[in-house]
Every structure is written in C-alpha cells, then in structure tokens.
Amino acid sequence: MPELQAVRVVITGRVQGVGFRPFVSRLACELGVTGWVRNRSGRVEIQAQGSMQALENFVRDLILRAPPLAQPEKPDVSFVQPADYRGFTILASAADETTDAHIPPDYFVCDDCLAEMQNPAERRYRYPFINCTQCGPRYTLIDDLPYDRPNTAMAGFVLCPACHAEYQNPNDRRYHAQPLACSRCGPSLLFRRPGFTDQTGNEAALAACLAALHAGWVVAVKGVGGYHLLCDATQSEAVRRLRLKKARPDKPLAVLVPWRGDDGLALADTLAVLEPSERALLRSPLRPIVLAKKRLPSPLAAEIAPDLAEWGLMLPYSPLHHLLAHDFGKPLVATSANISGEPVLTEGEAVEVRLARVADAFLHHDRPILRPADDSVYRRIGGKTRPIRLGRGTAPLEFTVPAGFERPLLAVGADLKNTVALGFGRRLVVSPHIGNLGSPRSEQVFSQIIADLTRLYDVCPEAIVCDAHPDYHVSRWARQAGLPVIPVFHHHAHASALAGEHGLQEPMLMFTWDGTGYGEDGTIWGGETLLGVPGAWRRVGYLKTFRLPGGDKASREPWRCALAVCWEAGLEWSPDLPQVGLLKSAWEKGLQCPLTSSAGRLFDAAAALLGLGFHASYEGHAAMRLEAVSAPESVALELPLAVDAAGLWVIDWRPLLPMLLQSALSEAERGGVVHASLAKAIVEQARQVREMHGVEKVGLTGGVFQNRLLTELAQTELSRQGFKVYLHERLPAGDGGISFGQLIEVAAKNP
Description:
Structural class: alpha+beta
Number of helices: 21
Helix content: 25-40%
Strand content: 15-25%
Oligomer: single chain
Shape: globular
Number of strands: 34
C-alpha cells in the first residue's frame, strides 16, 4: 500500500465566486484524496492527503482543470503531517489579518442554466434568477469576504429544502453556489404602472411588461448591475418618445437582440455586418455592447443611432433579459436608466422618483444591487475588439505590476468617464465605469465605490493620486480626503496607461490625443507627443495651438471651435449666429479664450465647418459624425511640420481649412482628407523624432484614438515605416484608463 502523504496548498488569484471549492472537492473525491478546503480572506486553503502520485495529480489538476471562470495562480505547496480524514469536506470560511482578495465581475447565465430555464420539466423553468457556480452576479452581489451567502445580497433569502439539498450535494453543479435560489425561496418580479394595481409573481409581471413594450411604452427594468430603459427598437415613435423623455436627443442607444439560431447571432446578423472578432465577443461570457457596422436597410428605428454608421448590439446576459428578449421576439432598446452622464440607477424607489417622467412603467425585483455596474462597450479598431467602457463582465479589472507599489495607493482618475483604481503590493485593480462627476449622484457613487473597493480588498491607501488639474472634482476630493496627494498630469497618465498595460519599460513615443487635459505649461493640452517611459515623459511635439472662445463651452458648441481655427488662420467663416461679433472681440482680447492644442476640438471644428452640426449633445458627438461620413480612402494633404523655439515638433493643421470650406467637395471627401492628413502628420512627426532619438515603438492613446478611421490609417502607415505600434487592448484609450495610468506613473517614480 502506498505511503500516505499530506500537503497544505494555498491558491490565490480569482478563486472565489467561481465554484472553486466545489471543484476542489469533486477533484479530491475523483482522485481518492482526503482532507478539506476552505476560503481564507481572498485565497483558498487546502489540506490534502493521499498517495504521492494522487497528490501530484491533484495539485497539477487544480490549475489544469480549474473551472472556466477561475483564474488561479501557481499554488504554494508544503508538506505537513497526515491526519485522520475520513473523506473530503468544505469547511466554513475563515478570516485573518491578511487578504489576497480577487473580486470577480458579474457573469452571464451559462448554457446549462439557460437550457434548464427553457425546459418545462425543470423546477426552475422560466425562473428569472437562475444561476449556478459558473454564472450569475458577483461584483454587484458581494457585500464582504469571504464569499459566502451571508456576505452577499442573497443573505435575506432562506434556501428552501430542494435548493438546500443541491447546495450540500458535492455532485451537484450548485454545490455551494452562494446566489442559489428558485421561485419558492428566491427573488421575484413586480410590475408597476403608476396609478394601477401592481402585478406580482414572475409570470404575471413578465406578461404585463411585455404588453407594455408591445404598446410602445418605455419600461425601466431592473437587471444585474442597475436598471435599463427598454422600448421596442423597431418602433420609431417609441424611440423618439424615449429620447424626448430622457432628454437624450442624439447619443446612440444600445440594442438588446434576442438569441436566435445555434450560435445566438441569427437575428444580429440581419442587423449588422459582423466581423469574426465581433461575433466571438458578442457571444462571450462578457456579453458587452459591441459597436458593429449597420446592415441597411434595417428593421431598427433610424433614431437609435442617428447619423452614425454603427449599431451598439448586445445579446441577453441574464435570465431575465433572455426571457424578455425571447418573449418579445424583436430587438429592444436597452439603455442605462440614469440621468445622462450619471451612474446607472440601482434602487426601485430612486428610479420611480428620478425617472418618473421618463419611464411609463417599471419592472422591479427584490434582489438588492449593492453597487452599480453599467454595460461594457467594445469597438473593433486595428483588427481587434477594444474596450470603450469597462463595466459588467469586465471589471473590477486586475493587473500585476512588475515593480509593485511601495505603499498602498488610491487613484481617482479623471472627471469624465471616471474610474478609480487601487495599487497595493504588485496588484492594480481598476473599478468599473462610474460616469461623469459633477452631480450629487455621481459623487455619491464615486465615494461608495472607493469605500467598497478598499474594504473588499482590505486596502488602506496611504496616498491619493489625482489629476494635476486644480479644479477637477477628483482633485478637490483628493485634497479634502486627509491623505497625501500626488498629482499626475493628464497626458502623462494616458501615456503611462498604454505603456503599463503592455508592460513596456523602454523609451517609446506616445501620441496622446484627446479633448482636453491640463498641461505642464498651464494650457489645455490635447494633441501631444510624449517621449520616454512611465515616470519620465517629456513633450517632443504637439498640434499647433489655438485660442478656444468660451473655454469648456466649445466642447458643446463646435461652431466655437470652427471660428477659432479660422480666426487663427486668418480666414473668414460666417455662421448665422448672433453672438459671433462679440465672441471675436473677446477672442482678439484673449478674454475667456484659453490656449489649446486639442485634437478633439480640431475634429469638432472640422465637423462644424462641414455643416454636420453646430451643437453637441454628448461628448465626441461632432467627431463621431465626422468619422461616420468620411471616405476611408482619401488623399492626404501635406501638413507642415516645424520646430518651435523650444525644439518641439509642431503639426500645422491650417492647410486643412481651405479644403474644408470648399462646398464643391462632398462631406465624405472632405472628412476623409481630414483623417488621412492627420494620420500622415502623425507618421511624419514620428519619423522626425526617430531620426533624433532612435525610438522604434509608438503608442496611440487618448480618446481621439477611439476613432477607428484615424487610428487604422496611422497604425497602418506607421507599421509600413518600421515602427512597432501599440494600442490599448484591456483598457479604454479614453479617460476610463486614466486611473490605471496614474498609478503606473507614480509607481515608476517610487514616491
């Protein structure tokens, strides 16, 4: 008989909330190993004994055969004295003074649960909250660690005998599934139309909701990370009503597409021209919104994404969304239920009060949402799908930082598209998208997410990293928090975000193009070229500056940008607006006209000069319309490249203006020339810097590089010129990646 051996195994990584302990128990029983497993403050601790061969197979398979959602790291194994174990058990979780928590994001409903929900013979047939160890909510459900039912939003739901039996059965896929429930013991739906009797019970509430949607109503529906506003995506009148009620005149709306066909994409294929990577992402466990080229003509209402070339599509991700989409039988608009720019709403009472004039009815449920998580958004750029917004399914997003942090840090990101991040040890954790700061609701959620993440990860920050802009909300919050404050310049954070994401530590050239950011010289940067490494960036180039009439107002009124660039070039452009005369007088005197090098505002100016709109109802509105109309294959103009008095390479955009004012050319031609010319200028500037400094690696970061046409033109030509080009793959190129970049920048300086 083989000699009995015993080992203690500690595994870190994403091993909680993913069915890892039940997996360990089943694996041990299969291999004839006895002992126990338990959660311990964010890691899994195992005591296992058996023959040496059995233990070797056991330790190996802990990694090789781990559940699909798990991300275990290499186990720490040590030999211990054997004990008298009669079998293998899951012990109650333990806590101690140290933690290595990994908080999983919210998951989609898995194939097994989906099949069960659709089978009339199953007791969870059509149950809107079905889940198992491999699917369902996590981030929005977990209140504390270790990950056990009493520490989740399910604590108030007592398991019925049938669910309890599944929970205790090692051979059941719901063994120790913490959000486990059924229609007898779990959450349920309630449909409310103000002034009418509530519809309770899952089937009655679903039927009432579907009837409301068929009638063209707007219904606020509670999901996993917050409420959605739903309406019939094929009814123009319903979509127009939603836009009018929500005061969202132009910003594109996401579309929830019913699962059809073997791969789920049969209906989606009729709406969009889907590339292979887009198809894979739509069907992936992330289930994000994917921006994909419109297939026209379309049954979708044109008002969903006016003047744009893409739809934002997503497949159902929760059991409730599957039921609604399947029973409705047509695409549904599914946009965040919020006041524009704020975090998505999560509580029924707040939704009914704050969206009383937006939603005609409400579909509630009684499973609490502990913190908001908006839908993730991806777009295919440069041959890969890349994140535009981090949210449900993707965040909290974790990275390993080679150099590590000398002390725990909190980074509070930027004011727009805000995320926050924690840096501790060699770990860096980025929150889901929070939203635009400046409203009480946004700042309340901002503070809540910081409190939740520091508590869940058991991190006590010793300093706060913030944007160098003195008047940002995040900067003011940081100064009032009572901890040391470390400011980081906005574009340095963009550059460090891209370098840090790819683990690059050698000098590279970073084009950091966006709307606005506080610059080292106190002006508004936005078209910068930086050279160096995290912690040591220096400006080597930029777009020619111009004075921006009205400052921040110009981001909402692109005609101001158009006037500014024309006046800078000595050209006349006379929009039919009464305030132009007074504005020019202020511009000539330099009153409320800050200097900027912003690429984003330059694109806004081009859009206004083409007549694509004088007003922007959302950030990037004018530039997105410009990209949508632009011809992809256009001949570039030669934009002069000169060296200024400080030795910096300056791209002069002024030759674009006479072309933009040529009404004989189509919008597509003129828009295409703008993109092609600026892409060519990027390449020429990179070549000049390479001649001086020998740099071969080039990065494209900042919100402007979420423009696919510009990015792909620049990427293609840079590659032809022998550069190695880097784009974001896990982080947004825009301000959603700023908090990550702030921590990378500070870590490199070793404060």
